[in-house]
Write a structure and sequence with these properties.
The structure is a single chain. By secondary structure, this protein is of the alpha/beta class. The chain contains seven helices and nine strands, in the order ββαβββαβαβααβαβα. 33% of the residues lie in helices and 19% in strands. Strand 6, helix 3 and strand 7 form a beta-alpha-beta unit. Helix 2 crosses helix 3. It starts with 9 loop residues before the first strand and ends with a helix.
């Protein structure tokens, strides 16, 4: 399997000195690390401990559904049909390795995995689920927005008990034309059947985020940051 050894470039911001927690946030297909950086002041609460937000840039690669044109992506998407395998499995596993490298860097900077939240939107959310479920050293929480579970057929065999026990915030727009709500719900149902505390929060929005979702995510993170 081909590998990429260089650390991904990132956009970073901290909310105070000596961050006690980190949030690694993966963007969607065709975006970059700047895409979700503006969410920080909307999300962060005054009483939270200091956090480091890490927004990596996905590599640039040819995308099959984009007529082979290159764009930033965590893996190739080979089909628009959610009833079939649509993701490049080798690419998903490569991206998991890239996330692991970012997590190791946070550890080296004084923030262990159990104080790292892994977040992602759309394709980034797919990697969030794929990486988080396979962890032996679990994250503080997984945040999967407007997304679906990749490598679904392999998940039962590859998910770890600690991965399945990781707190999950999963949300979706009821009017999403890119990742249909049904795909998100099916993914949540699959995770629940594997024993994960998985439920899908629904918001009246397209393939995006909204203020109510950010508020609810803030409430959810508050509970985990206080632990």
């Amino acid at each position: 399997m081909p590998t990429r050894t260089a650390m991904l470039e990132t956009v970073e911001t901290t909310t105070g000195p000596k961050p006690a927690f980190s949030v690694i946030w993966l963007h969607g297909l065709g975006a970059d690390g700047h895409d979700f950086a503006p969410i920080v002041p909307e999300l962060v609460r005054r009483d939270w401990p200091a956090l480091r937000f890490v927004f990596p840039h996905a590599p640039v690669m040819p995308i099959t559904i984009n007529s082979g044109h290159a764009m930033r992506a965590w893996y190739d998407i080979v089909s628009l049909d959610f009833s079939k395998v649509r993701e490049d499995a080798a690419g998903v596993r490569r991206a998991i390795g890239e996330v692991d490298a970012l997590v190791a860097r946070e550890r080296d900077r004084g923030v262990p995995a159990n104080r790292v939240f892994l977040a992602g939107f759309s394709q980034g959310g797919a990697i969030t689920l794929a990486a988080g479920l396979r962890r032996e050293q679990p994250f503080a929480g997984l945040i999967a927005l407007s997304t679906y579970l990749p490598l679904a057929a392999e998940t039962a065999a590859e998910a770890t008990p600690k991965g399945l026990a990781t707190p999950l915030f999963m949300a979706h727009g009821t009017q999403d034309p890119v990742v249909p709500l049904a795909a998100g719900q099916k993914s949540a149902d699959t995770l629940k059947a594997l024993g994960m505390d998985a439920s899908l929060r629904r918001y009246p929005m397209p393939h995006s985020v909204c203020a109510d979702e950010i508020r609810d995510l803030g409430d959810w993170m508050t509970q985990r940051l206080a632990g």
